[in-house]
C-alpha cells in the first residue's frame, strides 16, 4: 500500500492540476509532495536491511537502495515545487508565460515526478527501462517549455541523444534477458529473480550487456563523453526543472546502472565493472574540469559541475569498498541538495540580470542578498569545503580509495578536482561579489524562495556536521546491498 | 523460414541507406516493421502462445500502421523539402554499413560462439539493424530521419528480443511497444516545433548552443 | 545415355521460356488492374518476326550478321549447365557454374559489338550502358556463386546446389543474386522491357537495328537467359528435389521446377510493380548493394555460418 501510494500520489496530483483553479492547484500540489516526502521518510525508516517490501503482485518492490533514491527524489521534488511557485508567478506577471502554460507546467511537473519515483520501485528491468525512458519524454516538454529557438534545440538534442542512449540500454537489457534464458531456461526480467541466479550467467554476454547498459544509461546519467545533451538541457530548462534534472534525474539513471552492476558483479566478479566505473568517473571529472574553465554561461557552468559530481559518484562506485559505496550514495544526496540550492540561486540571478552570461552578472550581494548567500553556501559546498556535506562524502571516497591502494586514480581525481575548484571559484566569486551594474535594482526575493534557500542550506550544514542516525542506517543498508557484504 | 525473414530484414535495412527521399525512407521502415511482425508471428505460431500473438498484433498496429502513418501525416503537414540531405552518398553509406555488418558478424561469432545458425543470424541482423539505425541518425541530418533512425534501432532490438530470446515477458513487450509509440509521437511534436521556430528541420543547422 | 535426355530437356526449356516472360507480364498487368496481353503473346511476337523480311544496315559487318547465332548458341549451351528439371551437363563433368558466366559474357560481348557495328547512335549508347552495368553485375554474380561454392567445396552445379540447404551466407548470396537477376533480365529498376523510350532503354537499344528472324533469335535467347537465371535462383533458394537422391520421378521433379519458376516470376513481377526505374547513375547504388551483399555473404561464410 505504501509503495502503491508513492506511485499514485503524483499521478493524482497531475490529474488535480488539470482540473483545479490556480490557487487550489498550488495547495494541492504542495500537500501532495509534502505527503510524498513523509511517505518516503516512512518507507526509509520502515525498510529493514537485507529484505525488501513487495507490492502489487511483485511489480513494485523496494529495498534499502530504492528507499534511499525515493527519499532523494521526493526531497528535491518538494524543494523544486516550492521554489517554482514564485518563479512561475514572476514569468506570468512579466508576460513570458500564460496562465494556461502554468497549468501545463504543473501537470508535467507531476508526471515527471511520477515517472522518476517509478524507476526505483519497479522490480522488472524491462519496466524500469520504460520508466527511465518516460522520464525523458516527460521532462522534454519542460526543457523546451519557453518554445524559443534555443530551448527547442536543447529539447530536441535532449530527447534524441537520451533516447539513443536508452535504446542501447534496452539492448543491454535484452542481452541480460538472453543470458538468463540461456542459463536457467527461465524467461524473466525480474531483478530479484535474476539476482538469485546471477552466479551462473555467461560472463561473456554479461560483460557485453553491462557495457551497453553503462553507455546507455550513462548517457542519461551525464557521463562523459555521452554528456553532450546535458549542458544544453540544463541551461534551457526552467530553473526548478534544471535543479530536478541535475539533482535527481541523473541519479535515477545511476540507480539503473547500479542495479545492473550488482547482477554483473555477481556473475563475473567486481573487477570488470570497477575498472569501467573508475575510467568513466575520472574521464567525466576531467572533461567537466576543462569545460568549466572556459565557461561563460551561469547555468551551463552548473551543468558541467553536475557532470563532475556524477563522475565522482561513479568513481566511488568503481572503488567498490563498502565505505566508498556509502560515500557515493551520500555524495549523491549532498550533490542533489547543493545543486538545487545553487540552481535556484542561479535562476534568480538570471531573471534579475536578464542574461545567462557570467561576465554580466556582478554584485549579487547588493542586488539579491539572500540569493547571494545561497549561491555562496552552494559554491563552497560544491567545491568541497567543510563544514558542508560534500566535504564529508569526498573525504570518505578518497580515504576508501587510499585504503584500497588505488593511489593513481586517487591522485588523478584530486588533480582534476583542483582544476574544478579553481574554475568554479574564479567564475562565481566575481558574480557573487564585484560591483553591481547600473540600472539593476535590489530586492525581489519571495518569502517562499528565502524559505527554500534557508532550509536547503541548513540541511547541507546538518549533513556535513552530523548525519542523522536513521539516514546513516539507511545508507549503510543500501551500500551493504550494493557491495553484497558487511560494512 | 526465420532465416528467410532475417535476410529480408537485412535487405530492407541496407535499402534504407540508398533512399534519397523521406517518403521512401518511411515506406522502407514500414516494410521492415512488417518483416519484424512476421518474425514474431512465425514465433507465435511455433510456440502456440496467446501472448506472443497479442504482441505480434500490437507490433503490426503500432509499427506497421500507426507510426508510419503518423510520420507521413507529419511530413505532409510541415511541407518541407522531401530530400534527405545525405551527408554521405549511398554507395559510401553502403560500404560503411558493410563494415558495420562485418564487425557485427565477427563480434557475434565471438559472443555466441557455439550456437545454431539461426541464433547467429538473428544476432548479426539485429546488431546490424541497430548500427544502421544509428548510422542513419548520424549521417542523415534531418529531424525526421533522426526519428526514423531511432525507430530502426528499436526495431533491431525488438528483433533480437523476439528471435533469440523468444520475446520478452508479455507485459514488458506491451509496455515497451506503448513507450515506442509515445516516443514517436513526442519526437514528432518536437519536430513540428522545430519547423515552426526555425522554418526548417535540418538538425546540423541547429547550432545555437555550444560549449 | 544422358546426352539425348539433356538435349530434350534443353529443348523443352527453350520452348517454354517465352511463356515465363508472358507470365511475368500477366502478373504485372493483374496487379495494375489491366487486361494486358495474352500469356502466349511472346510466341506471337517471335512468330511475327520470323515471317518478316530482314533489313541489314549497309555499314554493318559480319559481326552484325553473326551475333544472333552466337548469342542464341551461347545461351542454349549455358542452359545445359544449370540444373533445370533434374540434371545438367556439369553432372557429366563437362564444366561448372563458372562456365555459365563465361557463356553469358560471350553473348554479351558480341551483342555489344553488334550494337556498335550497325553505326546508329542508339546502338552504341545501349552497348556502353550494357557494359557499364555488366561491370557491376558480373563481380556480384560470380562472388555470390563463389560463396555458395565455397560452402559446398565444389563449383559444379549439382553438388553445389544440393549442399546449400538453408545457410545464412547462402541466403545473403541469394539476395545478391536476386538483384543480379533483375539487372540481367532487363527489369525495373535497372532497365524496362516495356518501353522503347530512347533515354532509358539499355537492352532494347542494342537490338534496335535488328529485324526479322535475327530479332526473333535474340528475343528467344533473352527469354532463355531469363529462365536460366530463374532456375538458378530457385535452385539456390530452394534446392529440393534436384538430384537423384529425392527418388521422385522426372515428372514430379518437373512439376516442382514449374512451381519454383512460377514463384520466382511472381516475386519478380511484384518487385517490378513496387519499384520505379532508376536513373542510370543510380543503378550503381542498386548493383553496388548486390555486390556488397555478395561480399557480406563471403564474410559470413568465412565465419562458418
The whole-angstrom Rg of chain C is 19 Å
Fraction in beta strands of chain C: under 5%
Kindly report the average pLDDT value of chain C.
83
Distance between the termini of chain B: 51 Å
Number of domains of chain B: 1
Structure in words:
The complex is a heterotrimer of chains A (487), B (211) and C (305). With 487 residues, chain A is mainly alpha-helical. Chain A has helices spanning 2-19, 22-46, 64-94, 99-121, 125-143, 149-184, 191-197, 203-221, 229-236, 239-268, 271-293, 298-319, 322-353, 364-367, 369-382, 389-403, 407-432, 447-465, 469-483; strands at residues 53-55, 60-62. Chain A has a two-stranded antiparallel sheet. The relative contact order of chain A is 0.10. Chain B is built from seven helices and no strands. In chain B, helix 3 packs parallel to helix 7 and helix 5 (117-139) runs antiparallel to helix 6 (143-164). In chain B, 51% of the residues are buried. Chain C has one domain. In chain C, helix 3 runs parallel beside helix 9 (212-237), helix 5 (121-152) packs across helix 6 (157-164) and helix 7 packs antiparallel against helix 11 (280-302). In chain C, 51% of the residues are buried. The interface between A and B is large, with 48 and 41 residues.
What's the layout of helices and strands?
The complex is a heterotrimer of chains A (487), B (211) and C (305).
Chain A: H1 2-19, H2 22-46, E1 53-55, E2 60-62, H3 64-94, H4 99-121, H5 125-143, H6 149-184, H7 191-197, H8 203-221, H9 229-236, H10 239-268, H11 271-293, H12 298-319, H13 322-353, H14 364-367, H15 369-382, H16 389-403, H17 407-432, H18 447-465, H19 469-483
Antiparallel strand pairs in A: 1-2
Chain B: H1 2-17, H2 22-47, H3 50-78, H4 90-111, H5 117-139, H6 143-164, H7 170-198
Helix pairs in contact in B: 1-2, 1-5, 2-3, 2-6, 3-7, 4-5, 5-6, 6-7
Chain C: H1 2-31, H2 41-51, H3 62-79, H4 97-117, H5 121-152, H6 157-164, H7 168-184, H8 203-206, H9 212-237, H10 250-274, H11 280-302
Helix pairs in contact in C: 1-9, 1-10, 2-9, 3-4, 3-9, 4-5, 5-6, 5-7, 5-11, 7-9, 7-11, 9-10
Amino acid at each position: 500500500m505504501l509503495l502503491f501510494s508513492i506511485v499514485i500520489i503524483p499521478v493524482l496530483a497531475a490529474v488535480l492540476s488539470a482540473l483545479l483553479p490556480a490557487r487550489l492547484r498550488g495547495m494541492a500540489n504542495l500537500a501532495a509532495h509534502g505527503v510524498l516526502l513523509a511517505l518516503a521518510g516512512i518507507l526509509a525508516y520502515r525498510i529493514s536491511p537485507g529484505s525488501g517490501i513487495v507490492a502489487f503482485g511483485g511489480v513494485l518492490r523496494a529495498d534499502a537502495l530504492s528507499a534511499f533514491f525515493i527519499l532523494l527524489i521526493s526531497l528535491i521534488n518538494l524543494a523544486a515545487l516550492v521554489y517554482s511557485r514564485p518563479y512561475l508567478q514572476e514569468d506570468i506577471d512579466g508576460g513570458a508565460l500564460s496562465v494556461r502554460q502554468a497549468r501545463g507546467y504543473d501537470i508535467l511537473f507531476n508526471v515527471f515526478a511520477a515517472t522518476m519515483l517509478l524507476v526505483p520501485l519497479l522490480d522488472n528491468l524491462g519496466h524500469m527501462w520504460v520508466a527511465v525512458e518516460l522520464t525523458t519524454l516527460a521532462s522534454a516538454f519542460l526543457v523546451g517549455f519557453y518554445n524559443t529557438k534555443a530551448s527547442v534545440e536543447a529539447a530536441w538534442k535532449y530527447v534524441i541523444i537520451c533516447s539513443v542512449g536508452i535504446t542501447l540500454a534496452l539492448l543491454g537489457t535484452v542481452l541480460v534477458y538472453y543470458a538468463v534464458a540461456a542459463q536457467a531456461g527461465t524467461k524473466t526480467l525480474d531483478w530479484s529473480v535474476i539476482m538469485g541466479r546471477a552466479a551462473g550467467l555467461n560472463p561473456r554476454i554479461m560483460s557485453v550487456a553491462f557495457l551497453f547498459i553503462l553507455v546507455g544509461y550513462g548517457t542519461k546519467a551525464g557521463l562523459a563523453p555521452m554528456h553532450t545533451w546535458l549542458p544544453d538541457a540544463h541551461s534551457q530548462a526552467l530553473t526548478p526543472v534544471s535543479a530536478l534534472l541535475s539533482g535527481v534525474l541523473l541519479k535515477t539513471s545511476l540507480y539503473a546502472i547500479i542495479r545492473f552492476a550488482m547482477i554483473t558483479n555477481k556473475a563475473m566478479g567486481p573487477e570488470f565493472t570497477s575498472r569501467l566505473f573508475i575510467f568513466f568517473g575520472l574521464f567525466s571529472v576531467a572533461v567537466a574540469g576543462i569545460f568549466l574553465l572556459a565557461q561563460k554561461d551561469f547555468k551551463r557552468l552548473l551543468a558541467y559541475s553536475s557532470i563532475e559530481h556524477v563522475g565522482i559518484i561513479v568513481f566511488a562506485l568503481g572503488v567498490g569498498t563498502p565505505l566508498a559505496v556509502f560515500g557515493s550514495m551520500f555524495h549523491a544526496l549532498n550533490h542533489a541538495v547543493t545543486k538545487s540550492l545553487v540552481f535556484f540561486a542561479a535562476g534568480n540571478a538570471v531573471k534579475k540580470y536578464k542574461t545567462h552570461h557570467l561576465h554580466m552578472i556582478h554584485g549579487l550581494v547588493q542586488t539579491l542578498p539572500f540569493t547571494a548567500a545561497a549561491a555562496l553556501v552552494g559554491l563552497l559546498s560544491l567545491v568541497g569545503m567543510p563544514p558542508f556535506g560534500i566535504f564529508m562524502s569526498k573525504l570518505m571516497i578518497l580515504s576508501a580509495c587510499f585504503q584500497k591502494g588505488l593511489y593513481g586514480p586517487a591522485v588523478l581525481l584530486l588533480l582534476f578536482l583542483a582544476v574544478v575548484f579553481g574554475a568554479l571559484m574564479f567564475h562565481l566569486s566575481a558574480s557573487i561579489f564585484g560591483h553591481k551594474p547600473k540600472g539593476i535594482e535590489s530586492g525581489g526575493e519571495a518569502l517562499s524562495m528565502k524559505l527554500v534557500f534557508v532550509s536547503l542550506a541548513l540541511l547541507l550544514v546538518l549533513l556535513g556536521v552530523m548525519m542523522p542516525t536513521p539516514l546513516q542506517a539507511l545508507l549503510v543498508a543500501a551500500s551493504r546491498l550494493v557491495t553484497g557484504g558487511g560494512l | 523460414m526465420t532465416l528467410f525473414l532475417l535476410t529480408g530484414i537485412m535487405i530492407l535495412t541496407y535499402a534504407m541507406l540508398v533512399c534519397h527521399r523521406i517518403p521512401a525512407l518511411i515506406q522502407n521502415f514500414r516494410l521492415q516493421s512488417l518483416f519484424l511482425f512476421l518474425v514474431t508471428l512465425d514465433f507465435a505460431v511455433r510456440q502456440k502462445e496467446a501472448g506472443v500473438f497479442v504482441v505480434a498484433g500490437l507490433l503490426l498496429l503500432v509499427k506497421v500502421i500507426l507510426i508510419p502513418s503518423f510520420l507521413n501525416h507529419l511530413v505532409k503537414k510541415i511541407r518541407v523539402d522531401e530530400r534527405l540531405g545525405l551527408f554521405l552518398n549511398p554507395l559510401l553509406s553502403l560500404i560503411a554499413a558493410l563494415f558495420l555488418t562485418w564487425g557485427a558478424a565477427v563480434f557475434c561469432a565471438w559472443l555466441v560462439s557455439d550456437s545454431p545458425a539461426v541464433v547467429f543470424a538473428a544476432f548479426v541482423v539485429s546488431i546490424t539493424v541497430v548500427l544502421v539505425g544509428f548510422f542513419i541518425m548520424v549521417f542523415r541530418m534531418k529531424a525526421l530521419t533522426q526519428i526514423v533512425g531511432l525507430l530502426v534501432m528499436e526495431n533491431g532490438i525488438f528483433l533480437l528480443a523476439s528471435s533469440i530470446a523468444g520475446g520478452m515477458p508479455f507485459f514488458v513487450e506491451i509496455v515497451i511497444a506503448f513507450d515506442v509509440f509515445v516516443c514517436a509521437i513526442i519526437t514528432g511534436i518536437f519536430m513540428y516545433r522545430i519547423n515552426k521556430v526555425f522554418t526548417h528541420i535540418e538538425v546540423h543547422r541547429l547550432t545555437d548552443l555550444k560549449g | 545415355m544422358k546426352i539425348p535426355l539433356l538435349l530434350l530437356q534443353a529443348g523443352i526449356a527453350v520452348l517454354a521460356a517465352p511463356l515465363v516472360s508472358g507470365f511475368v507480364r500477366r502478373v504485372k498487368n493483374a496487379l495494375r488492374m489491366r487486361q494486358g496481353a495474352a500469356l502466349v503473346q511472346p510466341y506471337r511476337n517471335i512468330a511475327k518476326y520470323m515471317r518478316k523480311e530482314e533489313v541489314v544496315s549497309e555499314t554493318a559487318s559480319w559481326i552484325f550478321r553473326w551475333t544472333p547465332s552466337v548469342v542464341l548458341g551461347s545461351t542454349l549451351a549455358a542452359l545445359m549447365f544449370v540444373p533445370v528439371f533434374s540434371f545438367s551437363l556439369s553432372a557429366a563433368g563437362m564444366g561448372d557454374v563458372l562456365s555459365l558466366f563465361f557463356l553469358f559474357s560471350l553473348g554479351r560481348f558480341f551483342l555489344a559489338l553488334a550494337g556498335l557495328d550497325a553505326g546508329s547512335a542508339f546502338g552504341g549508347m545501349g552497348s556502353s550502358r550494357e557494359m557499364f552495368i555488366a561491370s557491376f553485375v558480373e563481380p556480384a554474380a560470380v562472388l555470390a556463386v563463389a560463396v555458395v561454392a565455397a560452402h559446398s567445396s565444389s563449383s559444379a552445379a549439382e553438388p553445389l546446389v544440393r549442399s546449400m540447404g538453408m545457410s545464412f551466407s547462402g541466403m545473403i548470396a541469394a539476395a545478391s543474386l536476386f538483384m543480379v537477376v533483375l539487372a540481367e533480365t532487363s527489369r525495373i529498376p535497372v532497365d524496362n522491357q516495356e518501353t522503347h523510350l530512347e533515354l532509358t532503354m539499355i537492352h532494347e537499344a542494342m537490338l534496335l537495328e535488328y529485324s526479322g528472324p535475327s530479332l526473333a533469335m535474340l528475343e528467344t535467347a533473352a527469354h532463355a537467359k531469363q529462365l536460366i537465371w530463374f532456375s538458378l535462383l530457385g535452385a539456390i533458394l530452394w534446392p529440393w528435389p534436384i538430384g537423384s537422391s529425392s527418388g521422385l520421378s522426372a515428372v514430379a521433379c518437373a512439376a516442382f521446377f514449374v512451381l519454383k519458376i512460377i514463384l520466382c516470376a511472381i516475386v519478380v513481377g511484384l518487385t517490378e510493380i513496387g519499384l520505379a526505374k532508376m536513373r542510370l547513375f543510380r543503378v550503381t547504388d542498386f548493383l553496388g548493394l548486390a555486390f556488397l551483399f555478395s561480399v557480406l555473404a563471403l564474410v559470413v561464410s568465412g565465419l562458418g555460418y
